[in-house]
Amino acid sequence: MIGHEAIRQYWTEGAMSAQRNVRFSAHPLAFDGRTGYALWTATFERVPSGVLVELDGVLSAAFDEQMRCELFREWWHRRES
What angle do CA 60, 62, 67 make, to 5 degrees? Predict the structure, then answer.
């Protein structure tokens, strides 16, 4: 996704109606100048199936001079039960 509108649309039209009981946590790993790296985990139930989804991932976020995110990347592993 690129841009604020694309991100807003994803969360309001997709993820918000397709997930419930969402839990998320993140833990910083390292910082390099204006770029940070973190380990994150999330769990949620899919709507309407009720399937439990567990995610385990890493992210990097780079910030500009005004501390606005200018580049965000993430990688994850998904397990469903």
Answer: 135
Query: What digits encode the pLDDT tens for the residues 4-53?
Result: 888 888 777 777 788 899 999 999 999 999 999 999 999 999 998 999 99
- Looking at the structure of the chain, the number of domains it has is 1
Does any domain span residue 39?
yes
The CATH number covering residue 34 comes to: 3.10.450.50
The tokens describing 70, both together, are 């200018």
Predicted TM-score of the model (pTM): 0.79
Residues 6+ apart with CB under 8 A from 26: 38, 39, 40, 59
What tokens does 54 get? Answer: 């567990």
Q: Which residue has the tokens 């419930």?
A: 20
Q: Is residue 75 one of the residues assigned to a domain?
A: yes
